[in-house]
Amino acid sequence: MERKVAREFRHKVELLIENEAEKDYLFDVLRMYHQSMDLPVLVGDLKLVINEPKRLPLFDAIRPLIPLKHQVEYDLLTPKRSRKLKEVRLDRTHRDGLGLSVRGGLEFGSGLYISQMVKDGQAGNVGLQVGDEIVRINGYSISSCIHDEVISLIKTKKIVSLKVRHVGMIPVKSSSDEPLKWHFVDQFVSESGEKKSSIAGLASIGGKEIKEKKVFLSLVGTKGMGISISSGPTQKPGIYISNVKPGSLSAEVGLQVGDQIVEVNGVDFTNADHKEAVRVLKSSRSLTITVLTGAGRELFMTDEERLAIEARRELDRQELMQQKRVALETNKILKEQQEKEKQRKMEISQKAAEEEERYKKEMEKIEAAETKHSREWEEDWGAKDRPKSPSSPRARKSSSPAPPESKTTKAKSSPDEAGSLTEEDKEDDQDEQVMRKTSHASRISNSSTPLQLAPSPPNQRRQMTPVMSKPVMLPQSQTHRPDPLRPALRSDGLPPEMLKRMVPFNASFKSNGKRQVISTSHHLY
Q1: Which among 249, 289, 417, 459 counts the fewest CB atoms within 10 Å?
Q2: pTM for this one?
Q3: What is the full DSSP assignment across 187-238?
Q4: Where is the composition biased (Acidic residues) (predicted)?
């Protein structure tokens, strides 16, 4: 039996691999596996040789060479290739589109393959997978169509009918100069970022994930498979494993009660009856069996197991209901908290608006008071009488208006009358000039010191004028000697308007007249 399996394997290798170096490499990795028993390393090495779809049958040819303890793991690690076609229908007018991307075509030397899937998209919901080959579209074969023709064919109808089979590989060609390469689907990442597994044939029955599994059994030197099979009911047809003998070959490769047998040595068991299934299972001593794990487990349960499952389901239901109640209460509490928080924020915003309005009103009152005060200031003092920045004495003297010339000065400037002036008139002219200078200095001093002017009462609306002190005539001391620089003033010969402009001269001023005159001159000039 082993020789027959080895002979069939060599024949398939010669048929599918032309390169002698690749053949030798395949045999070498199988010898190394039997020495190390490292199955993942073997599968990785096999993928370097089985690198195109036409060589995929070699995975099934190598399966009989794998020990029984590694059969299940080998089935998980190797890609699944489906021989049967599956038909699906997609709505082209769906809001999310078809939910897939395709690549390939006649111009690339390959068929059309699904390269990407949108997570929770329309294509994924109907069971399509990355690595599926599209064989027919709307009933038309696309084996001789280029890529653009396939896209146009998809757009002809609103409902797109696709017939596909799973290959597990995708064509890759970066440029027209490079040769076509094939990658396994586990080397690609879908649009959603989730890595696609190379395990195919997943279905969903009753909310459970049903996995397709393929095993190889060699019955040479054994009493049989160690299983019993039975047909399913009308509402669930098929061939199911009803019993597994402990310690048998079937138990060793992982077959269980409730597994549905879908294929044996290439024969479809989906619609087979019980007699035909028994005949196929006994027709060969080497069997390659494909099953759906746990697809009919509920058909072979005892009453105790059913009661236990019902009790478990009831506990799960009660737990779910409790979780739902807790979720509802939590949601209610969260809503109340959100409502309170919303109310609190509204109150805060309302208080802030009131404070802002109050602040605006206060600012308006302050601005109105400032405007009123400024207007009253202008009415009381006038803009031109406001304190100015201090300037130099020379600038103040140059900016001040020139004192009016008196008739005496005009009389002095006249050349005809200069000779007729007496000594007394000359003394009067000198006194008048000195008095004019001192009165002018007094006005400058008073105007540069605004603190000397008292503000007007609130009810008065006219401008205040400074009050000049009246001149005081002091009697001349008998012991005082006349100042040679400043002759003594005689009040009996002065007119009344000149007497009003005189300034007082006390004893100290007359005793230090020379120094005072110099100081006054320095102040003026």
Answers
A1: 459
A2: 0.47
A3: G-B-TTSPBPPS---EEEETTEEEEEEEEEEE-TTSS---EEEEE--TTS-S
A4: 422-432
